[in-house]
Input
Amino acid sequence: MARDIFLSYSQPDRDCAYEVTHHLEANGFSVWIAPRDVSPAAEWAAEIIEAIAAARVMVLIFSASSNSSPQVRREVERAVHKGLRVLPFRIEDVMPSSSLEYFLSSQHWLDGIALPRAPHYERLCACLRQWLNDAPRQPAAAGAVLAPATSRSDAAPKPGRRVSAEELRQLEVRLAHILGPIAAILVDRAAAVGADFAEIERRLAAELDSPEDQRRFLQARP
Output
C-alpha cells in the first residue's frame, strides 16, 4: 500500500524512529516503517524496494549509526534513484560520510538534536506538509538529487543591494562550522531571495534550531 512517507533508520535509533512515526501518524501522515510494515513471510529486500517506490518522501533519522549503515545507504540511494525527496532529521551532531554526502549535501536538513524533541517534530510535520502539497514529483535521472521546492512567497528574488561573493563565502564558512556541508546549499538558497546581507544572515540564522547555535552564528561576524 502506498504511504506518504518511508522512514529510514538504523536499528540503534529504533526508539526515536518509532517516536517520529507515532508523531507523524498522529498528525495525519501515513508512514511505512520496518519491521512493522513488512508483510509476514515476505522477502525483506523486495518489501523495502516496493515501499520506497510507493512513497512520496523519505524521512531519514540521521545519526552516527545511520551514517555508517550500509542498509541505510542503499535505501537513500534507491530513494534518490526513484526521484523521492529525502529529508534528513538529524538527531546527533555528525557529518555525513562520503558515501552519503553525495546524496544528502543538497537536501534540506532538520535538526532534532536538542531535547525535548517535540518542537522539532512540529517543524518536521510542517516541512512535510509543504513538500506533500507540492505538485506530484517527476521521475529524476539516476543520481539526481532533488532540493525542496521554494514557497511562492519566496519564488522571486527581492530587489536590494547585491551581496558580494566574498560576503556569501564568509556566511558559508560561519554556517559550515555549525551545520557542515549543507551550509553551501542554504547560503545559495537564502541569497536567491534575500534583499540584502542582513536579510540573508537572518534567514540563515533561522535555519538553526538552537538559540545557542543562532548566537554562535551571529556573533561570528568578522
In short: The chain has two domains: 5-133, 152-219. The chain has a mean pLDDT of 82.
